[in-house]
Amino acid sequence: MSLTYTYTQLVAVIKSYAEDLDPNFVASVDDFIAKAELRVLRDLDLELFETWSNLTISSGNRTVPKPSNTAIINDVFVRSPSEQKWLELPRRSYEYCIMYAPIESDIGVPKFYAELDGTNIYVVPTPDQAYASGNSKARATIRPTGLSSDNATSWLGDNLADLLFHGCMIEVHNFLKHPAKVKEAADMYNSLINQISREQEQGKRPKYKALNAQKEQKGADD
């Protein structure tokens, strides 16, 4: 039988491995689990949780809200209402974006985006017009319901329990300031990530990269 973790089981094993019942530690266990879940979702390209969502890009505003409950943005596309042509915005670092377009008053069709924070992305140059729903889209990985006192089971706990556990251990040992154990947990975690990623690549469908293609244009307009 494959390894699984319910919320209660994972909390218990975290406490057991950490051997620390300090109130501050105990109060942080849910945060360890949430951070580990987000780490897994960002490190693995889990198509099960992918969705296409509309974005709302406002004229003159580089900050664009992510779709609700987003773990990570994978692709961003905009379409000029006048040209009716989809353009992909390559992902870059925030530093790259502000160096590429340092003057916020200079406007144009967005060409790049960066992760800004947990709820926003950052586009450059400053949008020359509004790219509202239907003219801006993102392929995003959405956060599934995680383990908590209100949710006993989860997809990650049922299917990637060992990876989730080692992700939790990274957070635990960071909290306890045990750098050697952080490295040990990270090595185990990364080994599992590499193994799972190889398995994914063997059966992965092609990504939708050319949103201008006719068969994809219809889906974008739905």
From TrEMBL:
Region of interest (Disordered), residue spans: 198-222
A Pfam cross-reference name: SU10_adaptor
Protein name per UniProt: Uncharacterized protein
Source species taxonomy: unclassified sequences, metagenomes, ecological metagenomes
